Amino acid sequence: MKQKIREWLRRYLPAELLSMAATLVGAWVALHATHSHLNAALAGTWAGNVAYFGYLLGQDVHQARQACHAHQRPYTRRTFGRNVRALAVEFGPAEVVDSLLIRPTLMYYLPRWTGSFGGGILLAKLLADVTFYVPAIVSYELSKKRLRNFGDE
């Protein structure tokens, strides 16, 4: 189990750190530009998503390129499609519920309830991450052999 936890931390922690910074910056910029807590909640959610999934897609493409190169195969558009499909399988259901309901709702209310914009945004992100990672990790584990094995194309 320790090995699995290390694998998940290597995969998700750098993306989480980038996402946290993007979430705070996106929410802060939107709040100061529009003076709307709703816009701040939505901007924070989507800025965090772009950073998070952009990093993971880049990481997956890099690993797939290495696997293809090791087997003397080209990295093609089809391979890129497999990378995107693997991310969709890994995160699809968790992301829909997270981005459209849980995360923006928490990011809207928690800064108000805590009396701290930055603290409320961070707390909202951490609480939303709990409901996000359980299905995401299960899907990741289920998709590894079928969608992430680029040496057997």
TrEMBL record:
Keywords: Membrane, Transmembrane, Transmembrane helix. The chain crosses the membrane at residues 12-31, 117-138. It comes from the Bacteria. This is GtrA family protein. It comes from Hymenobacter tibetensis.
